[in-house]
From TrEMBL:
Top-level taxonomic group: Bacteria
SUPFAM superfamilies assigned: Carbohydrate phosphatase
Main localization of the protein described in the UniProt heading: cytoplasm
Subunit and partners: Homotetramer.
Transmembrane segments: none
Gene transcribed to yield this protein: fbp
Binding site for Mg(2+) 1: E91, D113, L115
Organism this protein belongs to: Alkalisalibacterium limincola
Catalysis performed (reactions): beta-D-fructose 1,6-bisphosphate + H2O = beta-D-fructose 6-phosphate + phosphate
Domain called Fructose-1-6-bisphosphatase class 1 C-terminal: residue spans: 199-331
Pathway info: Carbohydrate biosynthesis
Keyword Magnesium in record: yes
InterPro entries membership: FBPase_C_dom, FBPase_class-1, FBPase_N, FBPtase
Protein name as it appears in the record: Fructose-1,6-bisphosphatase class 1
């Protein structure tokens, strides 16, 4: 490979081109360094003494893994003193945490799922960190949930790190989606895929089929017709993948197309789905759209949805644009007939 572009150089070039500010460049570099530290902690596995449950629960009512807590702390501590942030919000924290008064405050808000798919940690399956960056509204501290309730289309940056056979950082600042691979010898991220393009059509879907009996009728019909294969209404055979780690499933789609679906189900009707809007669906939707894909909640474009709560859940249909459009039409058609 000719002299690959480092993440630092890429971000400086984005800044010189006017796509990002110096503070946003600093923020993304701090997050990337945090992901390197998380990658090292995750990579130690059983030897690091960090597997298993932390013995605590999060705002979602989920048992926290030791690495959930460690990853959250790494991101919080790294972002305290740089002067680029006003506050952070996390899947692992009930409410936002403002930058301590001892340090200067910046104009950005950072949201993250510090270790998505952590239930896979103990069985050595790829997990990841997902992050989203918003502007902090003028004149506010960022300490209140309400300061974060901005629709996904206002994100200024989004990304994820996937801790797999290699560690990759996939990033957008609104000017395409790009992948960087961590060089473990120099300890930096190098650009390995510029301007990712998700194939518009696919024959591969990702969903947890064990929930099938809990889905609504349009969802049941859509999946039934996929499973009917080339003799069915879709006229082609489909393959299925489900890693149960959103970062890993989405990364596969960023690389070869597909559709990822976590729909509403009646297991817990009070929840609009399992995945969280602010720090899972929104950043992944921005990355996918910047790569030519699409993301809806089964009816609406995810990035247009006005959030009502920091930890709000949402159904997620994302991936190859044509397949997302087909899948979304099933609910829209049912709504029209209702
Ligand atoms: P299920 C991981 O817990 C997660 O939040 C996502 O990463 C993943 O896509 C989903 O839940 C898996 O859910 O119900 O299949 O275990």
């Amino acid at each position: 490979m000719s002299n690959p572009v480092s993440l630092t150089r890429f971000l400086i070039e984005q800044q010189h081109a006017g796509h990002i500010s110096a503070d946003l460049r600093l923020l993304i570099e701090v997050v990337a360094r945090s992901c390197k530290r998380i990658s090292i902690a995750v990579g130690k596995g059983a030897l690091g003494g960090v597997l298993g449950d932390a013995g605590t629960g999060n705002v979602q009512g989920e048992a926290q893994k030791k690495l959930d807590v460690i990853s959250n702390e790494i991101l919080l501590e790294a972002n305290e003193w740089g002067g680029h942030l006003a506050a952070c919000a996390s899947e692992e924290m009930d409410h936002p945490v403002p930058v301590p008064n001892a340090y200067p405050k910046g104009n950005y808000l950072l949201l993250f799922d510090p270790l998505d798919g952590s239930s896979n940690i103990d069985v050595n399956v790829s997990v990841g960190t997902i992050f989203s960056v918003l502007r902090c509204p003028d004149g506010v501290s960022g300490a209140d949930d309400a300061h974060f309730l901005q629709c996904g289309a206002t994100q200024v940056a989004a990304g994820y790190a996937i801790y797999g056979p290699s560690t990759e950082l996939v990033l957008t600042v609104g000017n395409g989606s790009h992948a960087f691979t961590m060089d473990r010898e120099i300890g930096g991220f190098l650009l390995t895929r510029k301007d990712i393009q998700v194939p518009r059509a696919t024959a591969e879907f990702a969903i947890n089929m064990s929930n099938q009996r809990h889905w609504d009728t349009p969802m049941q019909r859509y999946i039934d017709e996929l499973l009917a294969g080339k003799d069915g209404p879709r006229g082609k055979n489909f393959n299925m993948r489900w890693i149960a780690s959103m970062v890993a499933d989405v990364h596969r789609i960023m690389n070869r197309g597909g559709i990822f679906i976590y729909p509403w189900d009646r297991k817990d009707p009070s929840k609009a789905g399992k995945l969280r809007l602010m720090y899972e669906a929104n950043p992944m939707a921005m990355l996918i759209e910047q790569a030519g894909g699409a993301a809806t909640d089964g009816r609406r474009r995810i990035l247009d949805i006005q959030p009502e709560a920091l930890h709000q859940r949402i159904p997620v249909f994302l991936g190859s644009a044509e397949e997302v459009e087909v899948a979304t039409a099933y609910h829209l058609e049912a709504d029209r007939k209702a």
